[in-house]
C-alpha cells in the first residue's frame, strides 16, 4: 500500500490546502495523472510524491481525517518533468494562485493525455532535476536588427550542442517574422505556442515538445510552460514588454520572471533582450558591458515647448517648427512619420453650455469620438486613382459620426445636441489619429497622408498593406499609433515627430516615465535602422563569447550627431525622460528613474501587490475595501516598515462594464516575499490578487 501526495487539477481557493493525500495499491511515478475524488465529484490530479505505507506510518497516525483511495490511473507515465513540477509549485506559491489552476496552464486537455505513450526517448532525464545554482541572465540591449542576428547565432550554438531553445516574444504578430527567420536559417520549423491555437493544435505542439521532437520552441508568454526536457537556452525578446504579464486570464503570472526561475531550476542559459531594458533588468544587471553595432550618428533631437506655441496663438497639434519642417521635407520628396498614441478624433465630446461630457453608460469614462472610417482600408488623401489600395473619401471629413468606449466596446452615433441640456454647442477635446489627420490635411492639402491605427488596420494584413504603400512611396505622411512598431525592422522614415508625449508621461502609474522613454527611444531607432544594415556580422565575430555562453551586457554606445531630425513636442520639455533622449544619454534616464523608485519604495526596491474588488454595487465594494484595509493594518502591525498599504481607493477608472472597482496596493520589502502568502491568506476569495502588477490603472 502507498500514500500519494496529489495536486487536484482544479482551482481550490487559497489558502486551503493545495496538495491532498490519497492511498493506492500501485507504486505510481511522480508526475503521472490519476483521477481522484474531491468532495462529491471526480477530478484529475497530478502525483507529486509517493511513499510506501511503512515509510509514512507516523503521518497516518497524525491525520485526523479518513484518507480516500485514488479512483483510477489516467496515464501511468510522468506527464511533466521534475523541473516543470517544481516550477508549477513555485509559481503557485509566488503568485498566490491555486496550484490546480497553475497546473492547468502547464497541460493540454487532460482527456487527450489518457493512454498516450510518450516512449522511452522522452522520459525525464537526470539533467532536468532541479538544481541549487543560480545562473545570471545575459542582458542584450541593441538595435532590433543587431539583436535579432545575435539571437539567431545564439540559437545556432544551442542546436550545435543538441539543446532545446525557448524563444519568447511578447505579441502574436511577432511570431511569423521569427518563424520565417528560423526556417530560413536552420531549415526547420519551430514549434509554436500562443493563445489563438485550437485545442488540437496546442495538444499536438505540446506533445512534440514532450516527446523531445522539437528543438526550437517559439511563442508568446505561455511557451515558457512547454514541457521541454533538454532545455539549454531561454531567450526573452523585448523583455521590457508589459505583455509578458498575464492580465486577461488567471493565474496572473509574468513569463519573464517564470523564465528566470526555470533557468535557475535547470541551470539553463537565459538572455534578456531589449533595446530599452526595463528598470528592473538594468538595476539587477551585474555583467560586463560590450558595444554592439549602432548608428554612426544618432539623430539630432529637437524638443518643442508647446507652452510657447499657445502663447503665440498656435492651438494646432503641429507646432510652427514642425509645420515648417514638414513643408521642407515634402518639397524634398521625403517621408514623414507623425506619432500620436491615441486612435480616434478626440478624447471626449464636451458641451460648452453645461460643461458635461458624453460618457459611456457602462463605464466611468467619456466616449471617444471617431470619424466613420471603415476598418481595413487606408485613409489616403490625394488622387485615389494613382494608389494601389482602397481609399475612403476623407477630404474635408471633419464631422464626428461615432462615439465609442474602448473598455466595453459600447458604441452610439454622435448626438447633434447635448443629452444633458439639449445645447447644440458641442466641441471635441483632446486629440487622436483622426484629428491629427484632419489638421495635417488642412495644412498640406497636396500631401498623400495615411493613418495606421487599430481602427484602420485591425489585422496584420492591413498593416502590411500600409507598409507596402509606404515602401512604394505612395504615402508622404503617415499618422500612426504604437502599431508602427509592428512594422519594424522593415519600416524606416526620413523624419519622425511625436506630436505630444505628455499624456503618456503624466499617467498616474510608476511605470509612466519608463514607458514614455521607451516609446521615444523606439521611435528614435526607426530613423537609424537603414544605416545598420550589413554591420551586424562584424559585431557577431567580435563577441562570440556572448553567443557561446558568457554573461555579458550588450548596450548601445553614443555617437556624433548629424542624421535626420527627431522632433518631440511637449508641455514639459525639461522632463528627464525627454532630456535623456535629446542628449542621447540613457544613463541620465536610468539614474533619475532609479532614484525616484528608491525614494517612493517602488520596484525594484519593493514588490507590489494589487488587490481589486469589482461589484455592481459601489457601496458594497467600498465597504469591503474598508473592512479588508482594517484587517491588513492589524496583520502587519509587527512589520510596519516592511509593508506599506495604499488605499483603499476607487480604481483609476472607477467603473468598467457596469462594475465598480476599488483597489488596495501593498508595497512589500523583497526580503519578506516568502512570508507574503500568510498575509494574503486573510483576503476573501472574491478579491483579485495580482503580484507584481504591470499596470496600476486597470
TrEMBL record:
Keywords for this protein:
ATP-binding, DNA replication, DNA-binding, Helicase, Hydrolase, Isomerase, Metal-binding, Nucleotide-binding, Primosome, Zinc
Output compositional bias ranges, type Polar residues.
Answer: 131-143
**Entry's Gene Ontology cellular component terms:** primosome complex
What are the binding positions for Zn(2+) 1 in this chain?
Answer: 351, 354, 418, 421
Gene Ontology BP terms: DNA recombination; DNA replication initiation; DNA replication, synthesis of primer; double-strand break repair
Q: Does the keyword Isomerase apply?
A: yes
Q: Which PROSITE patterns match?
A: HELICASE_ATP_BIND_1
Task: Give binding positions for Zn(2+) 2.
Answer: 360, 363, 405, 408
Q: Name one GO molecular function term.
A: ATP hydrolysis activity
Per the UniProt entry, the Enzyme Commission number(s) are 5.6.2.4
- Region Disordered, as annotated, extends over 124-143
Instruction: Write down the InterPro entries for this protein, in alphabetical order.
Output: Helicase_ATP-bd, P-loop_NTPase, PriA, PriA_3primeBD, PriA_3primeBD_sf, PriA_C
Q: Which cofactor does it need?
A: Zn(2+)
The UniProt entry, under Pfam families, shows:
PriA_3primeBD, PriA_C
The cofactor binding remark recorded in the entry reads:
Binds 2 zinc ions per subunit.
The reaction(s) this protein catalyses: Couples ATP hydrolysis with the unwinding of duplex DNA by translocating in the 3'-5' direction; ATP + H2O = ADP + phosphate + H(+)
Q: What superkingdom does the record give?
A: Bacteria
Q: Which residues form the Helicase ATP-binding domain?
A: 129-295
Function according to Swiss-Prot or TrEMBL: Initiates the restart of stalled replication forks, which reloads the replicative helicase on sites other than the origin of replication. Recognizes and binds to abandoned replication forks and remodels them to uncover a helicase loading site. Promotes assembly of the primosome at these replication forks.
HAMAP family from the xrefs? Answer: PriA (MF_00983)
- Its name, as the record gives it, is Replication restart protein PriA
Lineage of source species:
Bacteria, Candidatus Portnoyibacteriota
Gene that produces this protein: priA
